[in-house]
Amino acid sequence: MTRIFILVALTIWTASIRAALAEDLAEDLTEARWEEVSQIFSTNCINCHSSHGAAKGLRLDSYDAVLAGGVDGLVVLAGDPFGSELIKRLRGDSAPRMPFLATPLPPSQIDLIVRWIEAGMPKAQPPD
Ligand code: HEC
Question: Based on the domain organization, do 65 and 120 belong to the same domain?
């Protein structure tokens, strides 16, 4: 009898933990918004990645430009952050590391962009 009780209690406990984890993940995905990503690009990238002389033809000064990529093609692949050239450059998995000749972005900012790509590069916050 006691053993059954413990089993039931354990099952309920692990189910509630799993539900809490799923909620955390869902929150993370909606948190990664284009607004925040574009702020990171404005501060760190658009000096070299905007208008005509943009490095490698890659402009990071508008949503459509980021999705369009540069002369070598796409730099963000929906749902595949670590296969995306932009993340490889930020992490130093692909050289030269970005931002070019400057301090790497803090891990929390790279993580935000990773989650934004993972979520399929949402442009606006989905309505509640
Ligand atoms: C000081 C100028 C400069 C800054 C600032 C800069 N970049 Fe770059 N970026 C370059 C240059 C130059 C290249 C081309 C290097 C190469 O691959 O030969 C490049 C290439 C890239 C590429 C590769 C494009 C492709 O098609 O292969 C990506 C992605 C990129 N940058 C993203 C960023 C991001 C994101 C930031 C901001 C966090 C940033 N860059 C900041 C100069 C800069």
Answer: yes
Residue 27 and residue 37 in one domain: no
* CA–CA distance, 104 with 89 (Å, rounded to integer): 10
Q: Name the residue at shortest CA distance from atom 9 of ligand 1.
A: 55
The residue-averaged pLDDT of 41-55 equals: 95
Q: Name the residue of 41, 43, 48, 60 whose CB sits within 8 Å of the most ligand 1 atoms, as the mutation to test its pocket.
A: 48
10 and 51 together in one domain:
no
If asked whether residues 81 and 111 sit together in one domain, one would say yes
Identify whether residues 125 and 111 lie together within a single domain: yes
pLDDT per residue over 87-127, tens digit each?
999 999 999 999 999 999 999 999 999 999 999 999 986 56
d(CA 83, CA 87): 8
> What is the pTM assigned to this prediction?
0.81
101/123 same-domain check:
yes
Q: How far apart, in whole angstroms, are the C-alpha atoms of residue 20 and residue 73?
A: 39
Q: What is the largest CA-CA distance in the chain?
A: 75
What secondary structure does DSSP assign to 95-122, as a single string? Answer: SS-SSTTSPPPPHHHHHHHHHHHHTT--
